[in-house]
Amino acid sequence: MTDSAEASSRPRVVLGVGGGIAAYKACEVLRRLTESGHSVRVVPTDGALKFVGAATFEALSGQPVHTGVFSDVPSVPHVKLGQDADLVVVAPTTANLLAKAAHGLADDLLTNTLLTARCPVLLVPAMHTEMWEHPATRANVALLRSRGVVVAEPASGRLTGKDTGKGRLPEPAEIAELARLLLERPDALPRDMEGLHVAVSAGGTREPLDPVRFLGNRSSGRQGFALARVAAQRGARVTLVAAHTADLVPPAGVEVQRVGTAAELREAMHRVAQDARVVVMAAAVADFRPAALAEHKIKKTDRDPDPVRLTRNADILAELVEARRAGQVVVGFAAETGDGETDVLDYGRAKLERKGCDWLVVNAVGDGKAFEVEDNAGWLLSSAGAETPLPHGSKARLASAVWDAVVPACGV
Q: What are the recorded Gene Ontology BP terms (predicted)?
């Protein structure tokens, strides 16, 4: 395949960059998109180039950078860029850009591209809290979402100067994940979960053996974080109870509660489930813990070590099912391996019947599957007998498929 043919076969992404201080983070978004195989054309505003120079974007993308409609006129970029794109991402999207996009203003190359795009459009806001909460901005966001534009929820945290609050640009890794999801499934982020409170657990618990060692598992927490992230971007209020995770950035718009052991996770999930409409147990909870915790580090000696006695942890999923309120939906996860007599799906069916939850996501694990990887696959089993394959793809894509099935059961 020639270089030009290879370039034309790659997903084509337009990365718009608004004129806010968060424009510097667009460089990392660009790097992530190009390194994952996308052809990216950066279209900044004049204001963005006051924060990051055109040469930086050109070097990272390998493509020219223009801001006006009178550059490279013969190729008609103000029309062609939007027509040819598979996805348009604008990060950061300032309050000014949101207003222009909502009202169809087209006074530079980026706003013209937004008018001509017929692909998914992801706008990622970044502004001060007062600007994000202003009635004009809220009306512009609602108008854009009503037209099918994905306006992401901003993060909370440090803003310009000493200010903190909602309006911070989500981290580049999260923006890149949302971009990949929309390329995989353009309809993956409808605003169909507004008014729902969902509680999600994620990560692997760690059960201390002594002050240094613990019993744990290989869960990275990525699937639980993806479930929380997608739910928040679909409009839900999300509480994420996170055990050990692989240095994952908390999803934008999500309340995160950190825990360590199975006992701590159990307490937190029972507490947050009291007012959640949907409870998702995606955490990998240790089935056992050491019966006794050594006060000091267990030393290596010439004699064989004493056996480690284990005691069983509570079955949190079964307890949540037993305690669920009328109308509450409980979703479980099952990481399974087959053996010579029973396959993964059969083990999943048996677990669904045993636990009594409404839905069960079954993952085959081992050999680079499910744990410590970015992608996932499996099956979604329902208590009503439905079995839906979950094709291989990003964990955000699997999360969106789970929410597609669960949301109608909530009656929203």
A: coenzyme A biosynthetic process; pantothenate catabolic process
190 with 164: CB under 8 angstroms? no
Residue 298 lies in a domain: no
What CATH number does residue 71 fall under? 3.40.50.1950
Contacts of 396 (CB under 8 A, 6+ apart): 177, 178, 180, 181, 188, 226, 229, 230
333 annotated ligand-binding residue:
yes
Q: Among all residues, which ones are annotated catalytic?
A: 217
The model carries a pTM of 0.91
**Who's near 340: CB < 8 A, 6+ residues apart?**
none
355 is known to lie in a ligand binding site = yes
Which domain range does residue 80 map to? 7-184
Paired with 197 in beta bridges are: 237
Give me the CATH number covering residue 271.
3.40.50.10300
* Helical ranges in 109-234 per DSSP H: 109-116, 129-133, 135-146, 172-184, 222-233
> What's the pLDDT tens digit per position in 247-295?
888 999 999 999 999 999 999 999 999 999 999 999 999 999 998 888 8
